[in-house]
């Protein structure tokens, strides 16, 4: 398949076909809620929406998000061809209404109308030793982006020190402050360490981990598991209506930091957790 068309198909799938692990978590959350509650009804509506979007190949949500793309490619490949292919695909996907035009000039307020602009789509490139190419894309909704935040430890107001206990406090504070905004139930991506920019970047890359996939670091894995339980005890529930499920997963990554800094970036994504991966091996293209 031609690269441009493969990219277009990747965007279509990301916008219309929720990942199996996310759908499984939502169906389980629906089962867990009590009959006759607002939470039960909200999850029922979400599940119906998932099924209709897949059947009709229409977007899961009216906000089809900002396009964020990660490309891993072998030595000798060109970044330019992947950028050109994704931009072409974004324009076509907008015409076909798989994507809503979401690229707005901050000064003029003008929407470009095709999802193309400065750093739009945003692309990360990484060269690796494997012969195949991996293209990962996420469609990051604006509402959930607005409830993401970053903390600088120590945080005197929260009595959060520079350790995992402090990290735990600020994550709970962030989800409590969100109060269902950002279209809960959310998935929480956390980046510990680095500078302000890289901690956010690390937090968003955690969204490519499947729900239920444990961190390789035993201490982080333990923290992820306990946070999932404790955040759901907040009982904020889907869309903030109350209920047993406030978050579907917590994925935490870490990186080394400067001795004088300790940043914790918390990214939040809504239940429409749209991510897809494409693998290109020679002339063969496959999608997850």
TrEMBL record:
Which positions fall inside the Fe-S hydro-lyase tartrate dehydratase alpha-type catalytic domain? 6-278
Q: Which Pfam families match?
A: Fumerase
Q: What superkingdom does the record give?
A: Bacteria
Which key words tag this protein in UniProt? 4Fe-4S, Iron, Iron-sulfur, Lyase, Metal-binding
Q: Which InterPro entries match?
A: Fe-S_hydro-lyase_TtdA-typ_cat (IPR004646)
Gene Ontology molecular-function annotations:
4 iron, 4 sulfur cluster binding; lyase activity; metal ion binding
Q: What is stated as this protein's family in its record?
A: Belongs to the class-I fumarase family.
Provide the protein name. Fumarate hydratase
Organism of provenance: Geovibrio thiophilus
């Amino acid at each position: 398949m031609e690269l441009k068309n493969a990219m277009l198909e990747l965007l279509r799938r990301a916008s219309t076909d929720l990942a199996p692990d996310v759908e499984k978590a939502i169906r389980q959350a629906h089962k867990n809620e009590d009959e006759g509650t607002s939470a039960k009804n909200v999850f029922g509506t979400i599940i119906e929406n998932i099924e209709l979007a897949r059947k009709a190949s229409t977007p899961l949500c009216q906000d089809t998000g900002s396009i964020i793309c990660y490309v891993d490619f072998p030595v000798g490949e060109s970044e330019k061809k992947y950028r050109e292919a994704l931009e072409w695909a974004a324009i076509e996907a907008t015409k076909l209404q798989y994507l809503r035009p979401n690229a707005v000039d901050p000064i003029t307020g003008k929407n470009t109308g095709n999802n193309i602009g400065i750093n739009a789509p945003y692309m990360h490139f990484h060269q690796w030793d494997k012969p195949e190419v991996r293209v990962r894309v996420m469609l990051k909704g604006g509402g959930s982006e607005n409830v993401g935040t970053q903390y600088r430890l120590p945080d005197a107001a929260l009595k959060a020190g520079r350790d995992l206990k402090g990290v735990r406090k600020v994550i709970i504070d962030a989800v409590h402050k969100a109060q269902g905004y950002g279209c809960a139930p959310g998935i929480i991506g956390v980046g510990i360490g680095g500078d302000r920019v890289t901690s956010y970047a690390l937090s968003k890359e955690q969204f490519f981990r499947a729900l239920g996939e444990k961190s390789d670091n035993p201490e982080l894995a333990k923290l992820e598991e306990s946070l999932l339980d404790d955040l759901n005890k907040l009982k904020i529930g889907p869309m903030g209506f109350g209920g047993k499920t406030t978050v579907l997963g917590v994925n935490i990554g870490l990186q080394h930091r400067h001795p004088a800094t300790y940043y914790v970036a918390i990214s939040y994504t809504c239940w429409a957790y749209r991510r897809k991966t494409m693998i290109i091996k020679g002339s063969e293209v496959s999608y997850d």
